[in-house]
Amino acid sequence: MKSLAQRIREEFLPKVDRPGQYIGLEINARHAGDVDAFAAAKADGVAVALAFPDTYAIGISHLGSQILYTMLNDTPGCVCDRAYCPTPDAETILRQANLPLFGWESRASLREFDLLGFSLAYELCVTNVLTMLDLAGIPLHAADRGEGDPIVIAGDALADTPEPMADFIDLFLVGDGELPLAALAKLVADMKRSHATRDEILLQAARAIPGIYAPQFYSPRYNADGTLAALTPTHSGLPTRILRSHIASMDQTPPMTAPLVPLAEAVHDRVAVEIMRGCPNGCRFCQAGHARLPVRCRRIDDIVATAQAAIDATGHHEVSLLSLSTSDYPNLSELIDRMTAQFTPQHVSISLPSLRVDSQLRELPRLTSGVRKGGLTIAAEAGSERLRRAIGKDITEDNMLAGVQAAYRAGWRSVKVYFMAGLPGETDADIDEIFDLCQRLSFARKPVDNQRGSISASVSWAVPKPHTPMQWCAMRDATYFWAVRSRLREYAQRTPVSFKFHWIERSLLEAVLCRGDRRVGAAIEAVWRAGARMDSWDEHFNYARWQTAFAETGLDMAFYAHRELPLEELTPWDHIAPHRGREFLLKEYQRMRDVIAEL
Description:
Strand content: 5-15%
Radius of gyration: 24 Å
Distance between the termini: 75 Å
Strand order of the largest sheet: 2-1-3-4-5-6
Number of strands: 19
Number of helices: 21
Low-confidence stretches: none
Helix content: 25-40%
Mean pLDDT: 93
């Protein structure tokens, strides 16, 4: 009988588009082709598969997954493999050949692992989770899994709003994944040796490990109007509120000195070094900024050493310094000097993907030698000063204009500006200010070389995210967003300003999926069964299919997206404790409303 590895080689790889993304022999892979390592860990320790619910190109570039992959493979008695969501053509081939979804390195079926962990970074990847479970032969519903099935876990951003995926996930890891995942791997290994049942392991993990939420042990109850009345533990010893896990310092996360090098096209083909976790700004719309506190910084010596080791281990020629707000790293000037001195002689460039011009005026001119200059990016978020103050975006127009002019003098020729439309209290005048600000940013180049700068403005649609002061707000409807889109496009004709817009329907769906309760899982399953795949990709997204799925399951999308929440209402995410507490969010919400009222 042929092994699964042989069948993959003969029946799958020759038929699939771009087979390089399925080979699993990347430079720095830990167990490439090592079936024995998997078998040994399965027998004596714990075998973990990290599953990224999007294509290889996205997943191989995801720094969080690489961090956990490194950490687990450095843990004695643990082996970690990985898998990515097959593209639709590959899914068809797997189903036709009756091949299960497999670990990229071990070539073992995902169903054979002890733990199967999904990184839920984006709402529109939820149907891909069901695709991967089904291809692996794992029951979609947690309630239907038995002793032969892996424990399905999930973390990242959607673990902060877990209820829509609660039916499909055994355990959510809320917050930083390093500590709860390490503790869970040890617990599983220990309890396997004592022949504990699957349910015993799940219950003990939910009771004993901070940051773990087991939704099957919590029962929701709803009011007559459809709002959530209660979410109650069904077993003793379970927490009523889940505290987010966080590492105390960056020393508790492994330095990425030997990251995986993609074999096929990837969205980021470079060394990425996480220099800081958390963001000090507290913008009132940003879920990550509120959820990932406190701020923790990596030491400069460690950053430089990690970057050098990673360059040596990969052959890349670019280092990206990553965080939610790189410009807020407390010793950025010294870091830039050290990185420039270290890597310019090696012809390795440095990229700072999240410069904020208000704090970087003094830095821009001297970044020309060591830092790659593409387009300068500004996250203005709103066109008017009033709305920026309302949402807590501490950046003034004077700072933006001065910063952009400094960038023009330093050699930049184009500027990208991020905006949101649909913010609370927004008026037509605020929309007009988006274009007017772009015009002024373009004219800021005139004193430099008598030319106008090229301005590319990206407009997204404001989603009132949970765990932020905006969580009680209603999202504007599609009609409003279409009007904004038409208005800005008309303004930009025959000017150096160009606008790009996020998909309106996709943003509406993001709101439903992040603000939804457990009942939304039925719609997710229905739309998946109707063929939804890769919804984050333009060529696959079908909003009508989602609308049909919600209608068939008796759910109203507007109930979740377009309804202002009373402050006393129990939300589907209230059992996930925010870092600063609900009272803090309420005070910030009122401050936002006070600024809006200044009209």
